[in-house]
Amino acid sequence: MAVELTLDARLMEPPEPFDKALEILQKLQPGEYLCMLHRRIPYPLFEFCNALSLEHSVKEMPAGDFEILIYQGCDRETLYAEGILCA
Amino acid sequence: MRMKGLSLETIPAIHVPFRFFNTAPWMGVIAALVLLMEAGSVFSSHWSPELLAATHLLTLGFITMVMLGAMFQLVPVLSGEMIPGGATVATLVHSSLCAGLLLLVAGFYWQAYWLFNMAIPLLLMAFSVFLLALGSLLLRRRIGGGDSIYTIRLAALALMVSVGLGLFRAAQYAGLLSAVGLEDGINLHLGWGLGGWLLLLVMGASYQVIPMFHVTPNYSPALAKALPTAVFVSMLLLTFVNNGSLRGVALLVLCLAAIIYAIVSIRLLRRRKRKVADITARFWHLALLNIIVAACLLLIFYFTADVPPTSQWRAPIYTVIGIIMIYGFGVSVIMGMLQKIVPFLSYLHLQRSCMTNYELLKTLPHMGEFVPPGFPRWQFRLHLAALLSLLVAAITGQLLELCGLLLLLDFSWLGFTLARASRLYLATAKRVALHS
User: Fold this and answer.
1) Is B204 part of any domain?
2) Has residue B373 been placed in a domain?
């Protein structure tokens, strides 16, 4: 079962969301994924995801915030199977 | 929703916005020098050549210079798409804008209108290239950015109209075109420039930067679309309708939209989640207060046109509205935003340069080191003093030398702050490159 690491960045001022997310992502283990809540789509963070060979998914929440899931490619199928990632 | 991340090529290199940001304050310094050297005549009329030179240095040289640089950075971040041409377009736009503007200003200052023969093609190239590159991106239907991109689209159209009218007028000065329909053309040039381009672009940018940098609630989506639409439609009516009553209604709607925007923005800033002292928020408050005053004065000015006595007080009011819109609103917003954007971009780009060696991230300067807190505090004091002295000088005709001096200090301080931040960025980038 995938382990969720949560980062609620909605009340953080730039560049704090980026710094905190990167801190988590550098230590992300197989079987873990980051669930980040953000008021914006953090495009620059996705570059680091690519460099770290991580995948990401963005979902807009009803209140206009975004839920960003960042995970290792090897966990993609598990996350789909558990309904965390939607097709 | 699966999203494509931005590639390194999508966000422009930092030198793209920074060259615009680092040029702009020095255009303000030249405007201050014009005021200092021509203290006796600059406010003799709101069409005095010296005042036109100083005004264009502020509107094109400072405000538009920074806004164009910011667009190269902001639009890709908002839309997730690259502005076609990237750094090449930015180089062409920046160099032709600088050269064209300096020739335009020299033409006004020395009343050597033949210089406009060179200024016009250069400015035409700067804005055509920019608008073509930006327009080709903004015309795509499926781009992100929501209400900000919608508002920036309208702002780009307003810029096109204002520049077109300005160049038309410049051609008349140069004797290339006959002087027909001057008065209305000038008012429309001003209206589309200040009410259109400046107000709309600030609106569009604020929808993103106020919630993001000040951690406030978002603007209401309905209002975020209605306000720029009201501004743009009002400007269209003021341009194409001759009926006096309808023009009055259009101006009323335009001013009300500006006032509502300012009040909503002030209320959002008051709901900041972090109640820490923030000079950029103060700059925003100052700017928003100024636009409320400018809108009220414009309404009084328009609806009392037939009330005698006219000439004694109307001429200074016209100049005062211009000062409040340009220096009180436009320059204030930009000065405040630069204090946030420059450290943010410096930090962001340095982080990206650490992608091959994460250990270097820990060695980067903190964002606050790029613009230490004392710098914006002094900037705000100098700017407020310069604005007040400018208003006193325009109304009373006194304190012109002091006013020029304060403007000189205001822009020099900004130039020094930005140059210092850029130097720290360059030194750190060099160190990171050596260790990557």
Assistant:
1) no
2) yes
